[in-house]
Amino acid sequence: MSIPDLATLHALGAAQQPTYPDSAAVDSAVAKLRTLPPLVFAGECDELKDKIAAVSRGEAFLLQGGDCAETFAGVTADNVRNKLRVLLQMAVVLTYAASVPVVKVGRLAGQYAKPRSSDLETRDGVTLPAYRGDAVNGFDFTPEARVPDPQRLVDVYNSSAATLNLIRAFVTGGYADLRQVHTWNTDFVKESPVGQRYEAVASEIERALTFMSAIGADPVEFHRVDFHSSHEALVLEYEHAMTRIDSRTQMPYDVSGHMVWIGERTRQLDQAHVELLSHIRNPIGVKLGPTTSPDDALALASRLNPLNEPGRLTFITRFGAGRIRDGLPDLVEKVTAEGVEVAWVCDPMHGNTFEASSGYKTRRFDDVIDEVQGFFDVHRSLGTWPGGLHVELTGDDVTECVGGGEDLLEVDLGNRYESVCDPRLNRVQSLELAFLVAEMLRKA
């Protein structure tokens, strides 16, 4: 199967693309990317597709999380380990408390580009191009930094490769061993009520492992985990250059990540992003916001998964806490009635962002929980499976979202606000979310 060339894709229309000043530099960067080895392998993408098929059948739960926007400066062993650690902790809580297999997917090793509501940003009377993520331009508010630079796409590749190398080392080299459950709980978490609750779960797991060892059982699953990468497929030049023909199947795969998704702002049925992703064989996601009609969802499913292949398509809903209970039922009901194979996943972050009085973008932890609860309530009422959770989080002790067990206030946001784009749950809030979702899963 061939894929359309870049000129054809751009001719269809493509939202949220950088405007590069030098087309020759773009051609050079794309040519360089085409020569580089794959970041992931087609067989790994197929394995994730099989796991998501289990999610769509109600046999597993998808946990997808990581930075709003990764930065090149953030590619350090400590940063990568901290994000992996909080996802492992959340997965352990969900698996143990809800007795359901958890498919672990990082929002990392590629999440370097961000759609923006405006092409421009104005500060103190100065207007410059908006920051669109390290894949496109620099965060510093200077004319030089804000010029889109296609060489950054090669930097995305190198940073993603380094991140994936670190993750593979951690998950196969002993760090993800279940016998490490206590060591994943660092001091600032241990001191919190949710950290103490996690310690209790870890102690129960430790006793169970000791028993298993005593009877001679020591499966490989105790010592390593399967962990996959994902990001929004936003900058067409990068995703197209990283799409390769698999030597086993002669089918195209986007080898920049195991799973890629189309955002709420780029899911136009007749435009470039849907066209490109309709040709690749990776598992793919689509963000669906409150303007999505059931007909929109059905048309996207028909276009992106015409063979109705289980595990191929995930709908990631992002309605906002105040709209989820009214907006989601019609969507789920009609898609289900048509027999569409899809995993339903809740993104409780993007519909709940607001600007605090201090000027920081933030989210209320209670709104995040309320949207997840609404997602579960809708699926329970329809007899369908609430398949997963897609969250922006960090493994660090940041102050970006208000509320939670630490009772962070708007006045606290300036203490450690480190995100370059949207606010993320910190490690304590992420763990608290995992316990609350585990309760919902038990009932589901």
UniProtKB/TrEMBL annotation:
Pathway(s) annotated for this protein in UniProt: Metabolic intermediate biosynthesis; chorismate biosynthesis; chorismate from D-erythrose 4-phosphate and phosphoenolpyruvate: step 1/7
Enzyme Commission no: 2.5.1.54
UniProt keyword Amino-acid biosynthesis present: yes
Keywords: Amino-acid biosynthesis, Aromatic amino acid biosynthesis, Transferase
Reaction it catalyzes: D-erythrose 4-phosphate + phosphoenolpyruvate + H2O = 7-phospho-2-dehydro-3-deoxy-D-arabino-heptonate + phosphate
Cross-referenced Gene3D superfamilies: Aldolase class I
InterPro entries: Aldolase_TIM, DAHP_synth_2
Keyword Transferase: yes
Entry GO MF terms: 3-deoxy-7-phosphoheptulonate synthase activity
Name under which the protein is recorded: Phospho-2-dehydro-3-deoxyheptonate aldolase
Similarity comment: family membership: Belongs to the class-II DAHP synthase family.
